[in-house]
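Weekly sync, protein design subgroup
Attendees: M.S., D.O., the rotation student, P.L. (late)

Item 1: inverse folding check
M.S. brought a backbone from last month's batch and wanted to see whether the design step gives back something sensible before we order anything. D.O. pointed out we never logged the input encoding, so this time it goes straight into the notes. Structure tokens as presented (346 positions):
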């Protein structure tokens, strides 16, 4: 009996060891199919951008791979075991890309940056000054702003995003102009980011549209309220009165445009518009001045940046100049203020 019991125990042990060995040798039916994202490119883009995701253990059926950009589901247009082609969806925001396939969920280790575009309807030009003076909204080669005439022309500097050579710097002796029709008679919207730095000059000329008969002038004055002016000058570019007819005087605003002790890297967004009846000035997407007046603003033959009246120069930085042949809506003004497309070269 003892011998039979020993044989039975030995046989049972062999059976157990055999099954254990098979379990160890058999692959995990799910372990080998766990997906992994190893990279994606590009790492930023507008909604509609195609993103290539690389990794392992993707499903070759496109619809079996569920992709989301920071929680917003995206369409997979092509799939292989190691690549997914995906379109950035409308409404997506910056964040992780998440993949759900075969009941496994994985995500990227870094964020995808969803960029915000600027309004396109009625655009006459957009100059991001990303390493050059090219017009990039319409890609109109004839509307390039010259930066080659150093030391007369402004130089490139760091923009408000902290990127090198993506904004203009004016030292108080520099300006640039182009022979193209930049601002229509009316209506129009002009938008620009500026950093006046340490503002010591009594008057700083930001930009001027010239016809040889009239000038449309935008300037800053370092007075008690840090005023910003829109001025229409008289015949042959001379002043009608001391500084022409001024329609955009900003007085007694709650916050001065230019701090009394200005410092570098204090960027502000200035937007001006005229619909033929009302002048408006906005600072950082908030209206600070409005004036109802009917006048003719000049249809310019050329356009000057960084200087007005031949003698008043701008000192500071300038970036992301945009000009429209209409007045933007409130939604479009916000869109233009929040745009990030110019953060990178496009």
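Designed sequence read out in the meeting:
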């Amino acid at each position: 009996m003892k011998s039979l019991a020993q044989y039975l125990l030995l046989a049972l042990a062999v059976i157990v060891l055999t099954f254990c060995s098979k379990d160890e040798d058999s692959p995990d039916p799910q372990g080998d199919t766990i997906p992994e994202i190893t990279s994606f490119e590009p790492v930023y883009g507008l909604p509609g951008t195609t993103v290539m995701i690389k990794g392992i253990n993707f499903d070759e059926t496109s619809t079996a791979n569920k992709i989301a950009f920071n929680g917003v589901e995206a369409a997979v247009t092509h799939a292989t075991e190691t690549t997914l082609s995906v379109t950035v969806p409308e409404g997506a925001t910056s964040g992780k890309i998440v993949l759900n396939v075969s009941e496994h969920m994985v995500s990227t280790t870094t964020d995808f940056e969803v960029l915000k575009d600027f309004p396109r309807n009625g655009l006459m030009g957009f100059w991001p000054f990303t390493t050059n003076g090219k017009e990039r909204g319409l890609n109109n080669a004839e509307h390039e702003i010259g930066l080659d005439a150093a030391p007369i022309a402004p130089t490139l500097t760091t923009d408000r995003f902290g990127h090198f050579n993506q904004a203009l710097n004016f030292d108080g002796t520099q300006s640039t102009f182009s022979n193209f029709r930049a601002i229509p008679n009316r209506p129009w919207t002009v938008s620009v980011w500026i950093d006046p730095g340490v503002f010591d000059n009594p008057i700083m000329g930001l930009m001027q549209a010239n016809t040889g008969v009239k000038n449309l002038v935008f300037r800053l004055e370092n007075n008690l309220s840090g005023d910003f002016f829109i001025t229409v000058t008289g015949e042959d570019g001379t002043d009608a009165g001391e500084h022409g007819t001024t329609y955009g005087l900003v007085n007694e605003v709650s916050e001065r445009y230019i701090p009394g002790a200005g410092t570098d890297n204090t960027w502000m967004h200035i937007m001006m518009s005229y619909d033929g009846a009302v002048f408006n000035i906005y600072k950082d997407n908030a209206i600070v001045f409005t004036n109802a007046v009917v006048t003719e603003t000049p249809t310019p033959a050329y356009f000057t940046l960084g200087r007005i009246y031949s003698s008043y120069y701008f000192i500071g930085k300038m970036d992301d100049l945009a000009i429209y042949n209409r007045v933007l809506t409130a939604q479009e003004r916000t869109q233009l203020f929040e745009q990030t497309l110019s953060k990178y070269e496009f």
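Discussion: The CA atoms of residues 41 and 243 lie 53 Å apart. Confidence is low (pLDDT under 50) at residues 19-30, 234-244, 247-261.
Action: P.L. to compare against the previous round before Friday.
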